[in-house]
Amino acid sequence: MKILFTKSNKIGSKLIQWGLDEPVSHVAVLFESVENTMFHATFSGVKKETLESFLTHNEIVYNLDYNMLPVDEEIIYEKVYNKYNGDSYDVGAFVFFSICVFFKKLFKIPLPKTNPWNSTRNEICTEVAVSILNLQDVDASMLSPYQLYLILKAK
Ligand SMILES: [Ca+2]
Description:
The protein contains six helices and five strands, in the order βαβββαβαααα. The chain is of the alpha+beta class and about 160 residues long. The protein has a five-stranded antiparallel beta sheet with strand order 4-3-2-1-5, sandwiched between helices.
C-alpha cells in the first residue's frame, strides 16, 4: 500500500498550492495488491480509480510505502471501500478550509485545528487517507495533504 501525494494542472490544485505555499494539493491511497487500485476523495465523490487513469490527471510528488502482506492490504481495501465508496465530497469542510487558507495567505492568520463545517458523512481527501492509517489525534478535515505528509514522514 502506498500513500501518494500529488498535484495537477487544474485550477483548484494550483490555488491550493499557491494559497498554502505547499508542493501538493491532493492525497490518495494506492492498493498495489488490489490490481493497482487507487482510492480517494475527489470533488465528484469518494471512489476507486485505476492507477493508469489516476496518472492521466495527477502528478505524484511524494509517496510513502507501507510494506504489508497482500492479504492485509486487501483487508484494508475492503474496509475502506465498504465504509466510504460513493460518499459525497465534503464541500462544507473544503469551503471552510479554503476560507482559512485565504486568510492565512493574506493576513498570516494560522489555520485553526478543527473544522466546524466538517460533516462526518462526507469526506475530503485527507480524511480518507487518515482513516486508513488510524491516526486518532488529528482533525483531518483541517489538515492539508502536505501537512499530512510531514506528519507521516516523521513517524
Ligand atoms: Ca468530513
